[in-house]
Write a structure and sequence with these properties.
Blueprint lengths: L2 E8 L8 E8 L2 E8 L9 H16 L6 H22 L7 E7 L2 E7 L2 E7 L2 E7 L5 E2 L33 E6 L5 E6 H4 L4 H9 L4 H13 L9 E8 L1
Antiparallel strand pairs: 1-11, 2-3, 3-4, 4-5, 5-9, 6-7, 6-10, 7-8, 10-11
Helix pairs in contact: 1-2, 4-5
């Protein structure tokens, strides 16, 4: 199988970008990470960049099967490293993270915090994975099912991010991959403005990943208010 990918990140309505989109591909396999730092604004994407770099290095060096258990172990290690650096610097380093590994015909994902991973297959959303709750399959839910009517996070949801000393929760899963499948990883600064069904519609009417991304960005830009959050997304297709 051949993987193609496209990534985009923006500071939104801020001067400093706090979101990360990172990827590495080799030998028809790939590792993809998006996240948003919850640090002080002046630190930008320091924490989410650290998370992405750490996980990609671990994936490249791994000589074991990439599984949900592998994700639990490596993301847990990264969490402890973030916590240590935060304590050393006397400044918390906090981040959300969505991770996707694709090797041959197998995909494994992990999410924590206000991030999502989507899997599209045969014109349907097969998986819509949220960092707050377990994945639900075969659904075209709208965004409001994950949050308050205004898109705000609930109090317990605000605690679920890396670097917060025991308050993060990792949602993992896996699936088989077929030719023509597509995946989308994104932060909450993106999915709050583009619904699940719109993501699918824009995928089906697009000939390239760039076109798919452009359709969704146009929807987002028509809806955001001044001062909107930074955001990041990665799009992947399998041939």
């Amino acid at each position: 199988m051949i993987l193609s990918s496209y990534s985009f990140t923006s500071p939104g309505g801020h001067q400093v970008n706090q979101s990360t989109a990172a990827r590495y591909e080799a030998d028809n396999s790939g590792i993809y990470v998006v996240g948003a730092s919850l640090d002080a604004m002046q630190m930008g994407a320091a924490s989410s960049d650290y998370v992405a770099d750490s996980i990609i290095v671990a994936w490249r060096q791994s000589d074991t099967v990439i599984s949900p258990q592998w994700m639990q172990e490596k993301v847990g290690q990264t969490d402890r490293q973030l916590l240590w650096h935060g304590n050393e610097n006397r400044r918390p380093m906090l981040s959300t993270a969505a991770v996707l590994s694709i090797i041959r015909d197998s995909a494994v994902w992990a999410c924590t915090g206000s991030v999502r991973v989507y899997h599209f297959q045969n014109g349907r959303i097969m998986h819509a994975v949220n960092g707050w709750i377990p994945a639900l399959e075969n659904t075209d839910r709208e965004n409001s099912s994950f949050s308050g009517a205004d898109g705000s996070l609930k109090n317990d949801e605000k605690l679920r991010f890396l670097g917060s000393e025991g308050n993060w929760e990792l949602i993992t899963g896996s699936c088989s991959v077929l030719p023509k499948d597509a995946f989308l990883l994104c932060t909450d600064g993106f999915w709050k403005y583009v619904t699940d069904s719109e993501m699918l519609i824009d995928l089906l009417k697009s000939g390239t990943l760039e076109e798919w991304g452009t359709h969704m960005l146009l929807r987002l830009m028509s809806r955001v208010a001044p001062g909107n959050d930074s955001f990041a997304f990665i799009l992947i297709t399998v041939e």
